[in-house]
Write a structure and sequence with these properties.
The chain has 458 residues and is an alpha/beta fold. It has helices at residues 11-14, 17-36, 40-53, 90-93, 179-182, 215-227, 262-277, 307-318, 323-328, 380-392, 414-418, 443-457, and strands spanning 57-58, 70-75, 79-84, 95-101, 106-117, 120-128, 141-148, 154-159, 197-200, 237-243, 248-250, 256-259, 284-290, 331-335, 338-339, 361-364, 397-399, 423-428, 430-431, 439-442. It has two domains: 11-104 and 260-457, Aminopeptidase; 106-243, Roll (Aminopeptidase i, Domain 2). It has twelve helices and 20 strands. Helix 7 (262-277) packs across helix 12 (443-457). The relative contact order is 0.18. The structure holds manganese (II) ion (2 copies). One manganese (II) ion is lined by residues 101, 263-264, 293, 336-337.
């Protein structure tokens, strides 16, 4: 093939001994992060603690920022902004923004969840984000979240992650009796209201009168003894079921990592570690770990919230410059995963324009569906800018769309940032089995994405 032709680079094929070592050791830190933060709340707390160690201080509106400042804004414990003020004039140079998200698809408890049926206690759920429901049955689930108790105290819940913890469960049919279910389309195998969580099976035998000898009553007693909770407390709770799996290397050669919720913590980790490790950058940098991306970036902790522009205004105000000028000169990487090319399902992918596992950070110029609908479609010039800085910093990258035209599609936070007059493009790690209880990524892509973010910040 001539040098005029374009070809993807396989990172593992090209890597020398040092790069391989770096790829594998970086992955170990990531696995710790992803195991210890399975929800936006846990990830947010983890990153806040890491930022403090790096000298980041909490920011309050009204504070005046100056060059060299390193601050963070923890938004309701579910979304965190890390900001480092650089030496350059922020009105002329803008802000280098990397925006990823720390919420992942999961199964949330309803507000009145508890019931008993035929001697089994269950919880009703309402799933969060785009899941294929049948994948979430017959796997161990851990319960994570927060309960706002009557006293005003907030109880943090994490059950099922410790080796000795119990886990929770959604049942499915045995093959022997599944003939009717098997005949249904896959998407209808389990309905939303079938995702009921198995909670317990022992009736409350200590009750004086027989009426109260129920499994649910026993459960309420356990919850009260252990956590001081009553049933009403579920009304003021955010409790989620997530897979009780740990991150593991996949394959004989350990090239890949399987874990719950790579989407999108596999881009969050490179975002904040790149910021921490590129400390002498002259640019002003903002790393955003957003919530609610999986349900449309809504609410106070999603990227559509005014907090994003409020913080940019606060930076501009600190230097007495126009916020519009800051935004006009800012650049943003919307750091989110894309669909990795899977040879087992090649019929949904267009081979020239797919992101391949282990071929580096994947740029998605446009997302959307049905004729790029709902996409911000980044400028050629912005891709060109990234091509230059990636080449200067030996970053291996590729480009990929989410599947064939008109087969599917998706969206990210990109358009909510771009609408503020900020050049924005999607870039991230290709994922296999996205939104399933156990997603797969390549350590090489994780590391190249980290190098890409470092190059962007530098
Ligand atoms: Mn995502
Ligand atoms: Mn997603």
């Amino acid at each position: 093939m001539s040098e005029l032709a374009y070809k993807r680079t396989n990172v593992y094929e090209k890597a020398d001994e040092q790069l391989l070592k770096d790829i594998f050791s970086y992955a170990e830190g990531y696995k710790t992060f992803i195991d210890e933060g399975k929800t936006e709340r846990e990830s947010c707390a983890w990153v806040e603690a890491a930022a403090k160690k790096q000298g980041y201080k909490p920011f309050k509106f009204g504070d005046k920022l100056k060059k060299g400042d390193k601050v963070y804004y923890n938004n309701r414990g579910k979304n965190i902004y890390l900001i480092k003020i650089g030496e350059k004039n922020v009105a002329e140079d803008g802000i280098r923004i990397i925006a990823s998200h720390i919420d992942s698809p999961r199964i949330d408890l309803k507000q009145v969840p508890l019931y008993e049926s035929d001697g089994i206690a269950f919880a009703k759920t309402h799933y969060y984000g785009g899941i294929r429901k049948y994948q979430w049955a017959a796997v161990p689930l851990a319960l994570h979240g927060a309960v706002a108790l009557k006293s005003g105290e907030v109880l943090n819940v994490k059950i099922g992650e410790d080796e000795n913890d119990p886990v929770f469960y959604i049942s499915d049919l045995l093959p022997h009796l599944a003939a009717k279910q098997n005949a249904k389309p896959l998407g209808e195998g389990l309905a939303g209201e079938d995702l009921n969580i198995w909670l317990g099976n022992i009736p409350y035998t200590a009750a004086a009168d027989d009426k109260d000898k129920t499994v649910k009553e026993n459960l309420l007693k356990i919850l009260n003894d252990k956590y001081g909770m009553s049933e009403e407390d579920f009304l003021c709770a955010e409790l989620s079921l997530v897979p009780a799996y740990k991150a593991k290397d996949i394959g004989f050669d350990r090239a890949l990592i399987g874990a719950y919720g790579h989407d999108d913590r596999v881009c969050s980790y490179p975002a904040f570690t790149a910021l921490f490790n590129e400390d002498s950058s002259a640019h002003t940098v903002m790393v955003i770990l957003a919530d609610k991306e999986e349900i449309g970036s809504e609410g106070t902790t999603g990227m559509q919230c005014a907090l994003f522009t409020d913080l940019i205004d606060a930076i501009a105000d600190s230097f007495g410059v126009s916020s519009a000028a800051v935004r006009a000169n800012s650049k943003c990487l919307s750091a989110d995963v894309n669909a990795g090319y899977d040879p087992n399902f090649r019929d949904v992918c267009e081979p020239l324009n797919s992101a391949y596992v282990s071929c580096g950070a994947g740029i998605t110029k446009f997302t959307g569906a049905r004729g790029k609908g709902g996409s911000n479609d980044a400028d050629a010039e912005f891709v060109g800018f990234l091509r230059r800085i990636f080449a200067e910093n030996n970053v291996i990258w590729q480009t990929g769309e989410m599947g064939k035209v008109d087969v599917g599609g998706g969206g990210t936070v990109a358009k909510y940032i771009a609408k503020n007059n900020i050049d924005t493009i999607d870039i991230g790690v290709p994922v296999i089995s996205m939104h399933s209880p156990y997603e797969v990524i390549s350590k090489a892509d994780l590391y190249e994405t980290y190098l890409a973010f470092k190059a962007f910040i530098k």
